[in-house]
Amino acid sequence: MRSAFLFAWGAGDPLWLLATKRLFLILPLGAVALAYWTSVLSLPTIVVRAKRRTFVNLLLVTWWDLARATFTFWGGAFRFLLRLAISLFGALQMIVVGLWAVAQEVVLLPVRLIRNVGSNVLNPGVPWIAVAMTFFWCVFEAIVFTYVMTSLVIDTLSNLAGTQMTETAVRIPLFLFMFFIVLGSYAVLSTWTAALKTRDWATIVKIGVVESVAMFVEVVFLYREFVDALVPWFAQHASGNFELGIAGTLAIAGVTWLGIRSLSWFLFAGAGTPTMMAIIQGHGVGSRNVGGESRIASSLFSVGFTARLRNEFLWVGTEGERLLDAFLVPPMQVVAGALNFVTLLVANRHLLDLPLQSVRDFKDARTLVAELNQPRQRKAA
């Protein structure tokens, strides 16, 4: 036995031969040595055992399991190399195909985005174009009124504060104020229109009063300043002394307000304002399907790419388990075969059932202890 271990250790052999001997011979030789001495110790105990024939049969079966585990260990090395080559080839193929699929998705992404936008525009749903146009129109109108009202606001605040205000300090908060004024004007108009559709006369009167006050504030304080800025142009093209007067100024400002609100309302604000109010109020916006038809959810990536990616991840997990089984199961079978000799001597039974098929067959210590404490009649000696 000592000479066998020295041969398997191969201290004076070349590196490749030394590595081969230690890889293929040390573990099986150690298992055979343990099985040999355990069998030698078991032979005298046959006299005192109750079921001698069963014990001898189990001893022979244990030697058979160890021999099969040894040859499985030697063949498992080549099986592991073959599985490793298959896994590497599959991983390389997955990387190449994955990069090609990602490149296709990136190239086709603008086309898919345009198709999704076109589908949202042509099919019934949330009027995002109207929402965007309403928002940008409110921003544009707030910018115009900020430019018109800046000088008046600076003079008014400077007189109230006693210090000269700068345009930078005034225009940003003035723009935000004007933006909310314009957006609120459309919100009041939207609520009034909804009340007219339902013919709720009490609400129509109340919202009509609010709309009148909103129109008065916008005409007097905003559009009037816009008309005043155009008075020199009117005077230049008028004959004689031109005097517009407060009535003419308010009339032109009111007509201007009505024209701008009407054009913007019928073009985009009538559809965009209710959606913006639903977003602000937290009601949410959803697809408005016609005829109860369900719409297919749009995605940035194609369905085939998503399914392929999912399948590749599943393949990686499955192939990883197979590779791990090919690496761990063969040596663990040799260890299990050697341990069965020890438990056969001590507990009259096998500790592990061979052959092991996968890593899932490796039992933890608690399970093994529980099984040893519960004697099995089938393999009891």
Label the structural class: mainly alpha
Shape: rod-shaped
Number of helices: 10
Helix content: over 70%
Spatial separation of the terminal alpha carbons: 30 Å
Q: What is the total tally of β strands?
A: 0
The largest pleated sheet is described as:
none
- The number of distinct structural domains comes to 2
Low-confidence stretches: 288-294, 377-381
Rg, Å, rounded? 44 Å
What layout of secondary structure does this protein have?
Layout: H1 2-9, H2 15-24, H3 26-42, H4 52-122, H5 128-161, H6 167-198, H7 201-237, H8 245-281, H9 303-347, H10 365-373
Task: Please provide a written account of the structure.
The protein starts with a helix and ends in an 8-residue tail after the last helix. It contains ten helices and no strands. The relative contact order is 0.12. It folds into two domains: 2-109 and 306-373, no CATH class; 126-286, no CATH class. The model is unreliable at 288-294 and 377-381 (pLDDT under 50). With 381 residues, the chain is mainly alpha-helical.
